[in-house]
Amino acid sequence: MRVTLFTISHLQTELQRLRNENSSLNEEVSLCRTQCSELERKLEACCVTPTECVASVAPTDDNHVIDAGIKNAEVEELLSQVQLLEQRLGQSESLRNSERSASIAELDAINSSMLESKLRAEEAERTTSELRASLEKKSDEITQQALEIVTLQKDLAQLRHTHQTTVDQLSQSCTAVQTLEFQMAELKLKHESEIETQMAKMQDLSHSLSSMQTERDLLRTQCDELACQITQHLATIESAEAKLTESRQQLELELEQTRSQLSVSKKEADSLMERLIKSEDQVTTLRDELGRQVNEVECLNKAIFELGRENQSLQIMRERVTSRQWTKDNDAPACASCNREFSISNRRHHCRNCGGVFCHPCSSNRASTAASKDPVRVCNHCYSELTR
To answer: What CDD domains does the entry give (predicted)?
Structure first.
């Protein structure tokens, strides 16, 4: 359409130029005719012919002869100018006629080209209207698909919120477990300083441990439920991904059909391709989010496994607390490890972990225990277990 308008404008400009040139040639011919008429009048004013001029001046004297010669020369010069003007006039007439013929032929060609351009413009306008209607239909379909994608994105945001709530609950559970571990450490420290009182409170500690196990079982049940919910969310995400894949395939099919129909309108087809690429980017984003959800599920499983290990450690600690007692000095005449008898030079040393009495070489190690984060004296056997 733009090319047709440009051609019509160019032809109109060329036609105006030819008209201006024709007008200039007409003015030049008129000027030559005026000059020719002026010279003819001057020639008639002097004399009819050079012979008559000579005859008219024959009876006079020499001065008159000289004047007559000068006039004769002027007449001949005027005649030569008249001939020159006539030649120029003839050339101008011939040039004007040839240019007029060329202008007429070119004008006919321009009119024919303008008519053909007008027909092509009308045909292009009809084609453009049809293409515009088709594009509007495709645009409505793509808008509907975009709304579906927005709905899926909202569902994904809801899933993210639910997952974050799950993570927060798990964090609170871990905090509760840490709090319980700290309480057990305090109880064990009191047991080392007040052995008699601690034995009386052993039943309370067992009850607390049972409560912790009950709470741990409850947490494990909650974790299982959360894992089930996450599995359901993953299934929902996979369904959404399948829908997006189907939408992408549908868009690709429609894009191929649009390419075959809109070969002239490549710009609109490129726009559809850009929208398809955006949809694929959104699908990629959803896949990445799915991978992240899977990783988080794995982290939850690892956390559950760690809770199980901590529970086993707590049970082992409970068994040790119930089975181990602080050995009195009078009840230990020799080292519990090497059986070396105690004396003034070989003094008794209690292990802060198992409560046994050992000599200095057998209890010279220091390690952090559950009751004390600072390193305390422990026997070789307890040191091996604590540093394992």
So the answer is: FYVE_EEA1 (cd15730)
Euclidean distance between CA atoms 196 and 173, whole angstroms: 34
Question: What digits encode the pLDDT tens for the residues 317-373?
Answer: 666 655 567 888 888 899 989 999 998 888 999 998 888 899 999 999 999 887 777
349 in Cβ contact with 363 (< 8 Å)? yes
Sign of the alpha-carbon dihedral angle for 46, 51, 54, 55: negative
Give, to the nearest 10 degrees, the angle between helix 2-46 and helix 62-193.
160
Structure-token match 């726009």, residue found: 271
Q: What is the pLDDT of residues 144-189, one digit of tens each?
A: 877 888 887 787 788 778 778 877 877 786 777 677 778 777 776 7
Task: Give me the half-sphere count of Cα atoms (radius 13 Å) on the Cβ side of residue 170.
Answer: 22
The pLDDT value recorded for residue 54 is 42
Q: Show the tokens assigned to 156.
A: 């994904």
Q: At what angle do helices 62-193 and 266-323 cross, to 10 degrees?
A: 20
Residue with tokens 């119930």: 322
The Cα-based distances of 102 to 94, 107, 241 in angstroms read 12, 8, 71
- For residue 280, pLDDT over 70 is answered with yes
Helix (H, G, I), strand (E, B) or coil at 367: strand
Q: Do the Cβ atoms of 32 and 91 come closer than 8 Å?
A: no
Q: Which sequence spans correspond to the domains of the chain?
A: 324-387
DSSP secondary structure, 234-267, as one string: HHHHHHHHHHHHHHHHHHHHHHHHHHHH-SS-HH
Is 383 in contact with 352 (CB distance < 8 Å)?
no
**What DSSP line would sit under 77-142, residue for residue?**
HHHHHHHHHHHHHHHHHHHHHHHHHHHHHHHHHHHHHHHHHHHHHHHHHHHHHHHHHHHHHHHHHH
Query: What percent of the chain shows pLDDT beyond 90?
Result: 6
**Residues 231-256, mean pLDDT to the nearest whole number:** 79
**In the numeric block, which tokens belong to residue 235?**
């299934």
Distance CA 14, CA 20 (A): 10
Looking at the chain, how many residues does it have?
Answer: 388
Tokens 């993953």, located at residue: 234
Distance between CA 352 and CA 327 in Å, rounded? 11
**What values do phi and psi take at 356, rounded to 5?**
-75, 165
Q: Are 243 and 149 in contact (CB under 8 A)?
A: no
